[in-house]
């Protein structure tokens, strides 16, 4: 049996230092709905019903839950306007906008991946 090479400790340490922050990011953004909600808000401030229309298939209950979680992670801001009727608007925080480059990179990768799979498939 062939002996495997030892893992370089420096490389191993760098690897483990990368895993935790990526896991943290995935924990905040995981699920079917969070990224589509963020993408909707990348195109401007929206009322609840507008987001619901732009994110096909999401229920009001799920949208409400996901918006609360995004708000608790300082990615989305909920603003209540003192008007009649009361208007509630959602927007990305400055911190939420920091995800735009990540989302654009994921979108570009997704487009390239889809093309690649269509060619190979």
TrEMBL record:
One GO molecular-function entry: DNA binding
Superkingdom of source: Bacteria
Keyword match Translocase: no
Protein name per the record: DNA-binding HxlR family transcriptional regulator
UniProt keyword list: DNA-binding, Transcription, Transcription regulation
Record's keyword annotation contains Transcription regulation: yes
PROSITE patterns the UniProt entry points to: HTH_HXLR
HTH hxlR-type domain span: 15-118
SUPFAM superfamilies the UniProt entry points to: Winged helix' DNA-binding domain (SSF46785)
InterPro entries listed in its UniProt record: HTH_HxlR, WH-like_DNA-bd_sf, WH_DNA-bd_sf
Source species: Dyadobacter fermentans
């Amino acid at each position: 049996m062939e002996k495997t090479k030892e893992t370089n400790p420096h490389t191993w340490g760098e690897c483990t230092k990368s895993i935790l922050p990526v896991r943290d990011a995935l924990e905040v953004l995981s699920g079917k709905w969070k990224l589509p909600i963020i993408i909707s808000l990348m195109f401007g401030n929206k009322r609840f019903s507008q987001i619901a229309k732009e994110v096909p298939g999401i229920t009001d209950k799920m949208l409400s839950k996901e918006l609360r979680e995004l708000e608790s992670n300082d990615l989305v801001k909920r603003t209540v306007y003192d008007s009649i009727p009361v208007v509630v608007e959602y927007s990305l925080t400055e911190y939420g906008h920091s995800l735009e480059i990540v989302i654009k990179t994921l979108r570009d990768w997704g487009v390239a991946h889809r093309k690649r799979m269509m060619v190979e498939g």
